Here is the input.
Amino acid sequence: MSDTLRDKLMLGVALALAAIYLFPLYWMYITALKSGSAMFANPPDFWPRDPQWQIYGEVWESRNMGRYIWNSLVIACGAVSVIAILGTGCAYVLARYRNVWIDIGLFLILMLQVLPASLMITPIFVGFSQVGLLDYPRLAVILAIAAKSMPFFIVLVRATFMSVPQELEEAALVDGNSRVGAFFNIVLPLARNGILVSAILIFMQAFGEFVYSKSMIQAVELQPASVGLNTFMGPNTNEWNKIMAYATIYVTPILAAFVLLQRRIVSGLTSGALK
Amino acid sequence: MKRLFSSIVDGKGFDIALVALPLAFLLALSGLALLYNVVMSFQEVDMFSLGTLWRPFVGFKNYRDLFAQPETLPILANTAIFVTASIAGQFVIGFGLALFFWTNFPGASWLRGLFLVSWVMPGLVVGAIWNWILSGDFGVLNFILRESGLISENIFWRSDPNFSLWAVILANIWLGTSFNMILLSVGLSSIPGDLYEAAELDGANAWQRFWTITLPMMRASIGAIIALGLIFTLQQFDLFAAITSGGPNNSSNVTQYWAWDMSFRQYDFAKGATISVIMIVFVMAASIVYVRSTRHEVRG
Amino acid sequence: MGIRKYAMLGALALATVSILGMSARAEDVTINVWALDRDIQPAPNLVKDFNALNTGIKVEFRQIQFDDVVSEAMRAYSTGQAPDIIAIDNPEHALFASRGAFLNLTAMIAKSEVVKTANYFPGPLASTMWDGKNYGIPKATNTIALYYNKDMFKSKGLDPDKPPQTWDELVETARKLTDPSANVYGLTFSAKANEEGTFQFLPWAQMAGAGYDNINTAGAVKALDTWKTIIDEKLASPDTLTRSQWDSTGTFNSGNAAMAISGPWELDRMVAEAKFDWGVALLPVPKAGAERSSAMGDFNWAIFANTEYPEEAFKVLEYFVSQDDRMFKDFGQLPARSDITIPETGEPKKDAALKVFVEQLNYAKPRGPHPEWPKISKAIQDAIQAALTGQMSSQEALDQAAAKIKAVDG
Here is the structure.
């Protein structure tokens, strides 16, 4: 089998797999263009008969989405910075040694992430209200998200640090670097891609965070897009087409950015930054 | 002071500072919150005494009451099935896809990136979409299965007690696969290519190379992914709320949804907290397994 | 007459409020209001209108989702962050009132020129009462009735002006209308395992002489057996067990169900989307001449007990009440008052439906009031689901529910 034939075959299979996997996304896009009750049509329409393109503009305007998305960005960037600053060093140490204390540390970090946000929100809300953090609602949400997602970041980045050869760091130390110097000059650059992928995953999670924002941010001007999305939903009002239009606007830019970035990151890794 | 400083720059102090800071942060936020739950599970909680920790202690009464309820054991069993099936499905499919895209044909990395949609889409939307896909009468899944002749009569995924839990598992596998795939891709790409070249020269076939090189080299990634997968599946809440609400008749109820239902639907906060403590114990066991598995990791 | 009457009323309300507001003019008081209303529903619009009056009271509005009202309110109240005014679902009113979380408004209502208890339907009013005192004011009300597709009635040879009157007729009609080849179910309703299931089932039990405190009577068993027949024979979709009322009625609007049990909140969507002739009938009764009953839905206004400005908060409520006559015209909601005649909308199907709903409202009973209502409701939901999935007989399921409710009732 020639290489080009093989490539074409693989690409075909990949496209088929992607088509299956992306079906829910496709469904989101076309639902946005359908009218309300068309959702319940049987058999389902796989293509909107009367696409309502104007819905995107309407939703953007009527929902003041610019402000919501800005808030989401602020919260997501804040959470990622807190996590990256605190988590990277921790992951590095947990990867560097192998003893009982490290076991305990890892164990604690995993344990602290057990409960879903819907169960953690009450105690966190009570605690934050005691120390007055609720007066700075976006900061409060950033901290809560950081606490929720940091263990995830640490576990992932630790796995990345595991793949950085220890001899490189030792060589740097022998060359007269301090521990701090070796960390910043040698280890960190080598683990860069893993950290970046993990940070992006965290960013995307924080961008869609909902439970904490909903309860802690009461002022509409400070709420993120996920809370704005939720205001469409109610027991007697599910404007699915608008919900999906909103979600489309909300998701597409991040998805596009990620497709571009991950290509560089993952393929950058394969082409041998580490070898 | 100077010794402390130099230790932080260039000694054990450096490591301790790096770990102590985040740990303190986590303990202050998540640790206290968990403790609040544990304490509450031994108390009688009134919905208006949420703001204080001083409430009447009732010992193990909440636990006894909970295990006296007929739905408790089935729900624990459902949770075990949900976690095991979801992780197995996500990991196997995710690994399969990662290996597939690793072969590096043109367009591979673009398409791989697209798979991350399940990670970006807001939980509310994912839940709603799966709700329609799985719906009995006008659901797309039934439509496709019917048209392809696999079933002759609609399956009521959400409302048939025999299928409801599997409906949520199906959606959850979809949700978690991409995460597994991306991380396994990163893991795969960090395996030095010359190992394979050497093995190929030694005459190892693809199957042998997978078992002797790929798997052992990926140990750290796999351990991390499965440990995180466990936590993600135990935190999975949106899908239950959107697809089955734990029903019908608790046939798809799992601890995390049940705990929420107890606390915020029936306002029985003590029972809700008791269920969370059971979850904590469950994860504690799993965390020990993970931490032990890290002893066999290979350092690159 | 119409416009002048409104203008008068508006002016009167404005005058009342601004006179009352004078005393507070010295400094602006801020009153926080939480409600689930969206931009096209009453609360945010009334707040906007109120703020435009410049009474010296500034109202801040926060929208909360239906599912979060109680948990947000409890969290806020127990940490001292509660709003001054909240709109709360009527079965949950007693939960707060019985614990003293809501302000006792009896004295203020007695003195009020605007709020008169005699003007309210008894059901909604009862839901705001606890221990003989007023802990709130009904915000709006609703109930459920039977929607039916007249075109489908005609095509199956049924008389579109004779909707089913009794349970047997309902089942029989549903059998005739069900047409799997055309993807049509005879009926759609909601037996979901949340408050909606209870909301839909209780009227059936009540019509047969049962109630939440005696849920395992022969009549209630017959009601649940009727539901079971409907589900078992696939006269309604098996997804009835997991589908909300709104989603269920969506299948009616798209022509996949010939009848639907739901409330007046569906009217606007149905007018816009249903491409067929439809009508509304009173809920069928167990047998001809039996007592009628219906569910009573919607929210109440209440003031939190720890508000700093009880007087001002009450003034805001008085303003809301003074605008009750706009409820249906502007926001499509039914005021909970018997002294307001709802004007015609000019949309014949909607007007006809409205008459039925207003009549049905006379039979509406509140759920409870009981401070442990959520637990009672959960017992009823469990029974419905256990019976409909065939895991228990209707009798066993309702016996179990009765035992659980007895334990809650103490």
Remarks:
- The beta strands of chain A are 233-234, 237-238.
- The mean pLDDT of chain A is 82.
